What does this fold into?
Amino acid sequence: MRHGGRPVQALAMAAAVLALAIPSRAYYHYVHYLTGSAPFIPVPEAFDLNALPNKTVTFFVSDTGLKAYGSNDSFSSVLSQVKNAAAVWNSVASSDLRVAFGGLETYNPNQLSATPAGDVVFEELAPGILGLGAHSMSATATVQTGQNGQFFPISRGLVILTNSTDPNAGYGPGPSYLEEFYTTAVHEFGHALGLQHTWTAAAMSQDVIRNTSRSRPIDADDIASLSELYGVAGWAANTGSISGTVTANGKPWNMASVVAIPPQGPAVSALTNPDGTYTISGLAPGQYLLYAHPLPPDAVTYTNTGLALPVGSTGLPFVQTTGYFQTVFYPGTTEVTQAKTFTLSAGQALTGENFAVLPRSSPPVYDIVTWAFLDPASRQYLASASTSTSAYIFLSPAYGETSQQYLRIWAEANSMNVTPQPATAMLLGGGTAPSGDIQIYQGYILMDFPNTGGLTAGPRHLVMTFQDPEGTYVVVVPDAINVVDSGPPAITSLTQNSDGSVTVAAAGLTAASRIFFDGLQAAVTVPFQSTDATDGAITVTPPAGASGQNATVTVFTADSQNSMLVQFANPITYAYSVANAPQITAVTPSALPAGFNADGTSAMVDVTASNTNFVQGQVTVGFGTSDIGVRRVWVLSPTHLVADVVVANNAALGAWPVNVVSGFQVVEQPAAFQVQTPNMTLPTPALPVFNAVSYATVLHDADYGSIFGANLDAGSTAQVLLNGKPAPVLYASPTQINFQVPAGFPVGPTTLQVNNGSVSALPVYLQIDSTPAVISSAPSTPGGMSNAASSIQTVNPGDVVSVQITNADPGVVSAPNRVAVTLSGVPMAVQGVTSLGGGVFQIQFAVTQSFGGWQVPLVVLVDGSPSLSIPVIAR
Amino acid sequence: MPLLHVITSFESIRSSGRLNALAKRVKPLLLSTLMLGYCAVALPAATLERLGLDDLIGKSTLIVRGKILNSFTAASGPVIYTHYRIQPSETLKGTANVVVEIQVPGGTAGNLRQTFAGVPQFQTGDEYVFFLWTGKSGSTQVLGLTQGLFSVAAGGAKDPLTTRPASHEVMLDHGTGKQVKDQTLTMHLSELRARIQLSAAGAAK
It folds into this structure.
């Protein structure tokens, strides 16, 4: 169902004005057009960042759980996958939207939260359906204007997952520890955040061409899409754009897909507007080919499955232009070798890149699936006729190895009944020659691409041409094959150590490998150590487990492979010991007043428990409502934690549960917390507290801090107490207090309490960090050291990178676990710390995943204290 | 993400380094039901498992030809469902009530509108052959979104054409676990009826 009408004249004027200031949306979201004529400025459905606490949309998981689980699967495992799926979208540095996992909730129609958020529920989905994603919006929603332009506000995101992971149930995706469950959840979260489908092999890609994994959970297209909706100020400055039109016989083509694709690297796409215009934004600097292709026949169907059509000012959908056209590379060729190469730099906008396409009656082929065969014994991909009688494993999409004489791709197309034989086929990106040997066998295409040398690892795009009576038809399959240096890893042993750690030995292990217990990554205690040319071991601390849990252990490599490819029939498991049931023993305070202004009511909440194993970084505290936002959690002991919370303005009153998810432990206490009527006399300091100089949210001893809020100074002398002792106040007003952390103040969490001279606010927790390390060099790979401090280095998944820091405790050399490195907030695999003398330390870390080729922040943390970030380009 | 399918036997092939023998050997194995373990593929929009016609017939608890009578929406927890009432004109499998009610996620309830991409929306009067599944919860759904829908050609022909549109969704072939693409199926209603009867008879043996 669509919107009703709305006043269009004023909005049309506003839209025209905004069109001059803000680039047109380049991506396909859930789109509305406010006018019935050009220019067509798409207005998407998106969360209102200003309505979200701390610009965070928090997803709560239904505590009903699933009806049935597969072998060794559990609700805890499912939660871990959901949590990580949310974290993927939270890691987009160019997006101002934060995505959080909020723990459990119990849906109560009589006690609904007022704050926009998201829900993850488990439903009985009919056979054939494994997951769904959506969002809710007021049926009378009106256009809002935010930092990224106009939008219709989403009120709630919704992810529906199957209520059974039992493979014998006759429906459902199987156990949650399989990678597909995780990537399904990532995709559905994307819908919940306002993203629709594309055809670029990214997480939101439609059709069979998606090629994502735990090591590449989202790609450039997804990042661009999310940034279009929620980008931080200036997010586009590090990227470029390409725009133009698509016409046929001089008439605009609505909903044509235009794709910018580097010879090797992720593609980004956009759909044309009703006037044929398109803009592809969020393109990382580099070289691109550009092609326009029609949507496949199944993109928009008469049953309205497929894309949600854009909605016009009358509330009726804009239909796509009927028919199809010949796919062409810019400037209008079916020969990819004759396509123009665009070189794009940061901030550059290429305009007027227009396509005049040739209509045709139908595409002879669309929706290509690729696959390959893997020999589980040798862990090699089949690239030629083999004499082996071993069982072969079928994988899709295709894989091939850099050392092989040929890259072999099997493919199938969704034509009516027969897959036609391609006339030509080639892989972009160099290292291979076009396939001279193309066979078709009862619907399957088989292509061999000779390895010409210099073949490097990474996904490769496939370009095929087909001939039919209407001429040449080009089909581009982004990321059709994953080229890897070697086959997937295989765990050879798990060794329990006396200190509780586990040593995982595996063939095909690398420094960039990650060890997962079900859906949680295990913390490394001893980094990768090779045992021979192909094998090695990593020692980890298993995540906090649930009693009696059998967790499936999987090794994930940075090249999108994992040990389950060869070991799915007999997964390696780790048995957690049986323990007493965890319980929450106290919640203090157990009640807080609702907020009465935009700042809400901030307070620290102390939670003690029994039979728990709280671990810093693994804990989520939730209250079952988005009206109580958890800003930060400090783990004081395995059974004791403190959380800073904010009770929202207009929060729903009444009793709410308290739940804690720590690792795989899930503990909930119903009705353990009360939201009471607002206390209008309270000072309301807002969280976070800012560093008055850097405006970061990090404070050290002797730093100046700024507290914002309301009613902070009643006209008398406002006070700021740190651990009960007054801190110097430099400035005070009802809405702001500047204070100084005393020199020598101990590192760690401290209570902060504001008194406005008359009334004390509720205390909150504040972290005083140790003096941060300083990144003193650009990161470098073994190939060379960058000498230009301002140059932006590029790192690739699997790279072992070195970065130098100063201002660190020399003790980190012998205790490298004190050091963490993040890219875009995602922890990387620290391999070691060495002293270079003169107070300079070198940190080696492995890049464990892809970031779509975007510029992302690199941060070094020592004892949890973050450095200032430096930018890197992460492939 | 990789989709897994295990082939448990593979005959020796001359090491020609080329395709002919390989292609001929592989195909029969691909068709064999040798899937060990169930591996789902994370798919766009809805995550779908491919259901061939025989799968649809086998998994359906009810197959009816009918028209959409009307619809209403209702919330179930945080999910809004649109309930469609179908008036069956013919029951091809199972036992149908005078009116069959199915539910599809999405719709508008109260002041809230939920949009699910990939979920069918029907209009009053639309005629389909519906492949339906009633789960333990008692709710009836269409199998695999559009996979379980065959549109009936308008015009009142005695033996109309029925067409299942190809879905845009990536699908996993249930038997092989192979990631495949859906195919548009068009056949006369009599042929579809015969296929259903044949499949049902085969299942009964």
User: Anything to note?
Assistant: The first strand of chain B starts at residue 3 and ends at 7. Chain B has one domain: 7-204. The radius of gyration of chain B is 20 Å.
